[in-house]
């Protein structure tokens, strides 16, 4: 299997290439995810027996893959044997009985594969993701895009995607990237232990699957994946590297944007797509003494390439997702790790966090028709929206201090049990590490060895925020002082200063910073905002996922919407589209109302999702399936439009 498989458009709808190697297949099915295999069996044979007991798997508990489906061993053996026969028959030329289920048929099959009732509203989104229904791919009429151009800012996950989809639509564009390579956050964040905590088979573009080496790809592999995608789509052709955008200004009379770069370039285009992410600009706390420290001191996103921590005393400030990955990765190499924790984090277990995927599973993904599709769909079900209903505040709930409803409270019990088991015999650590706020109130983390690291003699957890950096170490607000040779500021990102530090000016020269204020960005669908015609934002306000799932799914929704709108402009002779203020205001009202009923406004904790005024700026309050529907196509009625000026 190649590193990046054939693009969806070229692949068979089954996503697999035939292999007649019975022995390899028989070996591989021993490692199969059986709920996935049952769905495959039905598609290949059309035999409804596979839809009923004893072949109905149980549902996953938590984020578990549920590989054995809860089937007794004899049933497992029957499924595997039948799968070998059916797959070989397919490889010999027998077409699948149900090659592309959609609508009710797909929902029935999804419900089988995930072991619980799936609502009908998931059918369309899933059919497109699985390649069973064509994804709308609009392109301008021949010739109509002539002279229309777009500037994309950023060549990370979203900017690369925008470029791929603009190219597919035949829309002329250039991508400006401040770094010397693609990858954005995955290029920049090289700290030890860096990697995804969304399963890689889900955290991949829908059109570019990969044979991942581990279930949760580490940074180098994610970065390689993005480079491979860039190669395959020849993206470097349209990217200008080392080109940092400093300003973008709209000229209403000409219906064009002018973009300026740090190295003095000035480019113009009809539209601008920003793809600068929300986790891009490191947030360094204004601690006294930052300049006084005598050794290396740096933000987690600026990890020095040649830093050797062997025998060093390392102080880590922060306990977010970055620190959670750094500490287990460096403990043992460093002589001593001291963590300064302002607030503890909830962390969930995951059995396959470090597990290799292995040849058997790669064989199944490559040669068993529909296997990779169903495997991803099951992940999407478990990781995307499943937890969303449990994040709604129950106003009647009597334990509002510790959880937001009965299910959230049950989650609390599960994660508490896990934490106390991990720290068994260390009541001191339990007291320090157990959060008192509701689980999911801050971004939920996966335990990657964090609790095991806390137990080590050479790791110390200090539950005091940092007050000051001294010449030789770190001092907490309570006066606790620790010497250190290296200080890591794992203190997060400027998530609310969207588009910062670019000076974006729309109609009449108005700065987006003035319109939004320093930390209160709003946009219709998180994509488009009144006063800024022909400006489209990816990873904009209210579109980060707090409840789970893969951000790439959201990026695909946004880029599809933007390209749809651009095609409408081009074909319709429209020179400017500007979101109607009342449309944006209504959207923001719905967004804020939804958040007011959700967990991230709970007063028990701070999180990077909301600003100092308490308004949630970063996260999506809806399910992914809702956002998918909202962004399926762009409605011109939501915009003031102007005909092209000649
Ligand atoms: P973060 O979640 O914002 O965490 C920053 C940490 O620094 C918090 O623990 C914060 O404490 C602490 N902090 C800030 N100022 C402090 C001070 N003066 N003294 C002591 N502690 C201080 O940042 P992050 O860990 O870089 O993660 C940001 C986001 O990036 C994540 O939520 C996630 O979306 C993404 N990310 C993902 C992965 C992954 O996929 N595995 C890995 C890394 C990052 P408080 O909690 O008290 O504010």
From TrEMBL:
Transmembrane segments: none annotated. The keyword Magnesium does not apply. InterPro entries: FAD-bind_Monooxygenase_sf, FAD/NAD-bd_sf, Flavin_mOase-like. SUPFAM superfamilies: FAD/NAD(P)-binding domain. Keywords: FAD, Flavoprotein, Oxidoreductase. GO terms for molecular function: flavin adenine dinucleotide binding; N,N-dimethylaniline monooxygenase activity; NADP binding. It holds the Pfam family FMO-like. Belongs to the FAD-binding monooxygenase family. This is NAD(P)/FAD-dependent oxidoreductase. It comes from Pseudonocardia bannensis.
């Amino acid at each position: 299997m190649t590193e990046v498989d054939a693009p969806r458009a070229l692949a068979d709808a089954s996503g697999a290439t035939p292999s007649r190697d019975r022995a390899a297949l028989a070996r591989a099915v021993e490692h199969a995810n059986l709920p996935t295999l049952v769905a495959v069996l039905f598609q290949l044979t059309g035999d409804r027996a596979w839809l009923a007991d004893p072949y109905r798997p149980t549902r996953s508990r938590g984020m578990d893959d549920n590989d054995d489906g809860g089937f007794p061993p004899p049933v497992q053996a029957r499924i595997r044997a039948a799968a070998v026969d059916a797959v070989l028959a397919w490889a010999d030329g027998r077409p699948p009985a149900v090659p592309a289920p959609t609508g009710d048929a797909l929902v029935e099959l999804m419900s089988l594969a995930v072991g619980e009732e799936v609502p009908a509203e998931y059918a369309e989104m899933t059919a497109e993701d699985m390649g069973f229904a064509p994804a709308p791919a609009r392109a301008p009429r021949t010739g109509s895009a002539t002279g229309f151009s777009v500037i994309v800012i950023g060549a990370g996950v979203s900017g690369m995607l925008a470029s791929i989809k603009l190219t597919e639509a035949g829309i002329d564009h250039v991508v400006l990237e401040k770094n010397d390579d693609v990858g954005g956050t995955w290029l920049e964040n090289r700290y030890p232990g860096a990697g995804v905590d969304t399963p890689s088979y889900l955290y991949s573009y829908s059109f570019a699957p990969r044979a991942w080496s581990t279930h949760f790809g580490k940074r180098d592999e994610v970065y390689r994946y993005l480079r491979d995608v860039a190669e395959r789509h020849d993206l470097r052709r349209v990217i200008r590297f080392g080109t940092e955008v400093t300003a973008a200004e709209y000229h209403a009379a000409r219906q064009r944007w002018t973009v300026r770069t740090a190295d003095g370039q000035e480019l113009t285009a009809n539209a601008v797509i920003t793809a600068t992410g929300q986790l891009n600009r490191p947030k360094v706390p204004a601690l006294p003494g930052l300049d006084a420290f005598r050794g290396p001191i740096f933000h987690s996103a600026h990890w020095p390439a040649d830093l050797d921590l062997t025998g060093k005393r390392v102080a880590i400030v922060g306990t977010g997702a970055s620190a959670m990955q750094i500490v287990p990765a460096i403990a043992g190499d460093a002589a001593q790790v001291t963590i300064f924790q302002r607030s503890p984090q909830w962390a969930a277990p995951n059995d396959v966090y470090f597990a290799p995927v292995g040849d058997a599973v790669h064989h199944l993904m490559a040669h068993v028709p529909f296997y990779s599709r169903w495997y991803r769909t099951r992940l999407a079900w478990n990781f995307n929206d499943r937890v969303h209903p449990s994040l709604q505040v129950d106003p009647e709930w009597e334990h509002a201090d510790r959880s937001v409803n009965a299910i959230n409270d049950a989650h609390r019990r599960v994660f508490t049990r896990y934490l106390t088991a991990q720290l068994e015999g260390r009541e001191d650590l339990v007291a320090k590490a157990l959060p008192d706020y509701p689980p999911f109130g801050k971004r939920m983390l996966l335990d990657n060895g964090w609790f095991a690291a806390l137990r080590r003699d050479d790791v110390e957890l200090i539950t005091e925020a940092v007050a000051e950096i001294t010449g030789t170490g770190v001092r907490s607000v309570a006066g606790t002082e620790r010497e250190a040779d290296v200080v890591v500021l794992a203190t997060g990102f400027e998530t609310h200063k969207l588009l910062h530090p670019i000076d974006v000016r729309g109609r009449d020269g108005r700065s987006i910073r003035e319109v939004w204020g320093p930390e209160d960005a709003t946009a219709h669908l998180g994509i488009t905002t009144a006063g800024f015609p022909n400006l489209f934002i990816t990873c904009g306000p209210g579109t980060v996922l707090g409840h789970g799932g893969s951000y790439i799914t959201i990026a695909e929704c946004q880029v599809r919407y933007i390209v749809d709108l651009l095609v409408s402009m081009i074909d319709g002779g429209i020179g400017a589209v500007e979101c109607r203020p009342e449309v944006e205001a209504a959207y923001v009202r719905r967004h804020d109302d939804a958040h007011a009923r959700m967990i991230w406004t709970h007063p028990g904790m701070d999180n990077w999702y909301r600003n100092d005024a308490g308004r949630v700026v970063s996260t999506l309050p809806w399910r992914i399936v809702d956002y998918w529907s909202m962004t399926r196509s762009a409605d011109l009625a939501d915009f003031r439009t102007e005909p092209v000026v000649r």
